[in-house]
Amino acid sequence: MRFYFSLIIFCIGALTVRAQSTVSQVLSYPVSETEMMEVMAYEEFLDNHKFNSPWLREMDFRVRSNDTELGLEDYRLRFGLINPLEIMANRDYRKLLQSQQTFQRKRTINDVLLRRYEILLESYFLSKSDQHLRGYLAILEQVQDIVMTEGQDLSDLIDIQYELVKTEMEQIELRQKKEILQAALAEYGQDSMIAWDDYSIVGIAQVVLQIESLEDTERSMQLVAEFNKLEEERSILQIKKAEAFSNIGFIQAEYDSERGNAIDEHAGFQVGFNLPVFGKDRPDLQRRELELVEQEAEYEMEKQEEEQQSELAVSQIRNLNRQYEMLETRQVAFSELQGVVSRNGSNVKGYLRMAEFELFLASKSLAVEADILMKYIRYLSRYGKLSDLPYRNYLSSLPEEFELSFE
Asked: Which of 2, 147, 154, 233 is least enclosed, having the fewest CB within 10 Å?
């Protein structure tokens, strides 16, 4: 009995999952037109619309007759002038939109890559979980064969059957999740699961260092987006102020056929200036200024909240890292215990408990690792790091870049 069990090696995850696809292939898959639709529409609109104000506000042509006579003797062509500040405000507004255009594209690509990273991490977790269950099932089947061959206690056999059924049920559920995930991977041209066995995934220590290097250095994408909205409101307010004094006056050319005898005596001109004494738009502008003050206050509150959320995210990763290190220590200690048991042997219940505990350690360690990696990727996404050029594979432990094309 001891001889057979000494041949059992408690190393869950020995079986591998074969696949032809790679992580870089998924990340570098061309971005579809649908994914970039909003950005493309925004860019096309800016290309076709300049937001330029005309130099002249209006053009007015007038004719006048003398008393009730049918003949026309007075001709006037008036050009209403527009406030130059309005022209400059509209130009500044378009420049602002153009500067934000790059941010909109970067944010969209960042969101596209985040979804791909999430799918990849789900693939990693499911593949490793499947390996753990397969290894555990292999151990259970070996123990079952030995028990049935040597005619051991019936209760031991029932315990093994119970574990087999429970594990096979988990495996069926896992297989269903993998099928759902495969449908998501098919969007990126992958007809099989990702091969993770020989993949050098980023280490948890690397993750912690990367996260700490980003602390208090940049604003989040959401905060930048809110700041951009605030800048737009400020720019629009400047336009409204200029529009409130849009009519600064006019230049009028005249021709009166009854005035004077020479041709140059018939012609004349007028210039008028509008005096902004009453300011009928002032109440509306003040309401807009009040709204802007409220938005600025909200932005400052969001900024403080964002800082707190960032600190919380880093704290969560550090706490998970402590759990991961503890589990690693326990796995090392358990491996030493396995060596002792393999030399001295044990009974059926002892081997089952060891296999159970090994599965627990491996599964828990994998769950914590996957949680850390997911929080890591989402943290990078929060600060737009996923779409920084050159594009970098943040799941690789080695420096690895990839190209990203657009359909």
From this structure: 154
